[in-house]
Amino acid sequence: MIVPLEEWHETQLVTAQMQQRPAPGWDRVNAAAAQRGIQLTTVRESDTHILYEAAGRHLVLPRGELPAAVADEVIALLEAGA
After folding, report:
1. What is the pTM of this model?
2. Angle CA 70–71–75, to nearest 5
């Protein structure tokens, strides 16, 4: 099968976009905070969670990888506080 060069190129772009993974949760949260000039400050820690202060709010978040749904909620809170 012969495919026109332009069609092949467009297919390559779409495939590359599909293969890109969304940024991990913490990267997304930190980027959103930085865009709004908000700093996440550690207040207290336990073995499983960390209490942060951000824009006058306290956030208790799990240690380790931040699930996408939790990252979305934190970003929404940061947007509401900005």
Report:
1. 0.65
2. 120
